[in-house]
């Protein structure tokens, strides 16, 4: 009898001390569609030099690289376009993967940055994202990029002896 009461008491105590688990609903088809639109809005805003629109894809305290908050994020876009010297670049994303629930999510997507004048690939990598659902919709709270390493130069082809 004492053993059963001790086991019951231990179970009740353990349940009381366990942290409460989130019971948020799973992502809906609407959530997925809104998140996909967020990624598209991000790309269009940076490609067409819309610093405010780009910063608005983030939460007010959102972070990308070393830039945090809307003012710093908008400044990043301005600097990025100045560094590009007017050369238009296009952000191409593919293989979007989203996991999470109705309040927060993790995203991962491939990036290919293309010079739209020469049609050459400027850079590739993978974005890793933390997203949150706000009153204004889904937003990035943190975005990191893992750039792919540049390919090693290949040796010139050997000429056949004459």
**How are strands sequenced across the largest beta sheet?**
2-1-6-5-4-3
Cα-to-Cα separation, first versus last residue? 99 Å
Can you identify the CATH class? Alpha Beta
Strand tally, please?
Answer: 6
CATH structural fold name:
Nuclear Transport Factor 2, Chain: A
Query: What's the architecture in CATH terms?
Result: Roll
**Number of helical elements:** 4
Shape: globular
The fraction of residues assigned to DSSP E strands is 35-45%
Q: How does the major sheet shape up?
A: 6 strands, mixed
Weakly predicted, low-confidence segments: 12-21
Number of domains: 1
Rounded radius of gyration (Å): 24 Å
InterPro entries: NTF2-like_dom_sf, SnoaL-like
Pfam family, one: SnoaL_4
Keywords: Signal
Explain what you see:
InterPro entries: NTF2-like_dom_sf, SnoaL-like. Keywords: Signal. By secondary structure, the protein is of the alpha+beta class. The chain has a single domain (25-147), classed as Nuclear Transport Factor 2, Chain: A. Helix content is 34%, strand content 36%. It has helices at residues 2-17, 29-47, 51-55, 70-84; strands at residues 58-64, 67-68, 89-100, 104-115, 120-134, 137-147. Strands 2-1-6-5-4-3 form a 6-stranded mixed β-sheet. Strand 3 (89-100) and strand 4 form a beta hairpin. Residues 12-21 have low confidence and may be disordered.
Q: Which tags fit this structure?
A:
single chain, about 160 residues, alpha+beta, Nuclear Transport Factor 2, Chain: A, 6-stranded mixed sheet, 4 helices, 6 strands, about 35% strand, NTF2-like_dom_sf, signal
């Amino acid at each position: 009898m004492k053993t059963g009461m001790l086991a019951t008491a231990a179970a009740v105590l353990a349940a009381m001390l366990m942290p409460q688990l989130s019971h948020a609903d799973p992502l809906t088809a609407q959530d997925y569609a809104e998140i996909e639109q967020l990624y598209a809005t991000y790309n269009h805003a940076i490609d067409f030099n819309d610093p405010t629109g780009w910063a608005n894809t983030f939460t007010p305290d959102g972070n990308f690289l070393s830039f945090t908050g809307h003012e710093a994020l908008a400044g990043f876009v301005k600097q990025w376009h100045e560094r590009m010297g007017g050369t238009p670049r296009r952000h191409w994303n593919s293989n979007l993967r989203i996991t999470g629930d109705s309040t927060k999510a993790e995203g991962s997507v491939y990036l290919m940055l293309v010079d739209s004048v020469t049609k050459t690939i400027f850079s590739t990598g993978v974005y890793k994202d933390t997203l949150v659902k706000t009153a204004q919709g889904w937003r990035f709270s943190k975005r990191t990029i893992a750039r792919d390493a540049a390919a090693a130069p290949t040796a010139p082809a050997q000429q056949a002896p004459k």
